[in-house]
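Fold tokens
===========
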Amino acid sequence: MIQPKPRQLTIAVTADCNLRCKGCRYGRDFMAGERLSLETIRSVLEDAREAGIDRVRFYGGEPLLHPDLPAMVRHTIGLGMRPYVTTNGTHLGPKIPALFDAGLRLATIGFYGIGARYDDYTRRRGHFERLERSLSQVRERYGSTFELQLNFVLIRETCNLADLELAWSFARKYDMFFHIDLANYAAPFFVQDREADLQLQPDDRPRVEAVTRALLDLKRSEPERFLHSPEFIRSVPDWLLKGPAMRVPCDAYELLWLGADGTLQLCDVALPLGNVNTHRLRDLLFTEAHAQAARDGFQLNCPNCTCKAQTRIQKDVPSMRRYGRMLAGEATQA
């Protein structure tokens, strides 16, 4: 019954990055020096449109470091697809005019804390100030015509009430949607060494549950800013603490991920399908290998990451029943 139905394509246009985040190997030893050409991406986009894909996420590394990103955005829109960019945001202010003129209207921004906490995590002094300048430039120039989303990454350092409150205030300051990113420990670009101390442990459950209750309060207070479902929010402790033991069928059959070296996979963690530097995208889609990858993903015959966690909860009846129940201590109203 499970068949490939790709709807979103993520393209890591470059592995280069101007930050050196504790939890990320991009810009260091993961696909070092790799970058997709504009010609390759145009071909991929054309094949993706024919395959029924309607949303394209430009990613990295840091995608704003690719000189041809505006041309990619323009080509995506010309094909009738919706593009958005996931960026660290520090280059967004200077580069937004060309991207806006190309038709871009949404950027999602990875976020790791305020001020010195941000600079410490990204290992780049002064870059939190650069991020704030960039966001100010976007708002001053384009106001609400350009959408911004803050992706608050829940790792051991950030999973506490104080950091959550600061991140929420930051999102409100720049009129951003608020989104929770669950640390993806299975991703090949994630730093796994003990020194990083990023992964939440079972004895962290009390503070994870406290943060979850606070997230539910925020959802009730401003549902238009915080788009996650209550059921997904209630599942956050299990995603963070159970890891691969969180057994919810995966709908990665709706995804495709393209790495900066041309590697095509169902998602950014596993289930390889080929390489677009040696084959056209259209020749790699809807094959038996693609169908088997879709089935393997659904059955969790993979590292079982946090990929598409919200939609997985929403599509799984037992999960909706379980997380439809209120948590202990959850407020009934804001």
About this structure: The CA atoms of residues 153 and 181 lie 5 Å apart. The radius of gyration is 19 Å. DSSP finds twelve helices and nine strands in the chain.
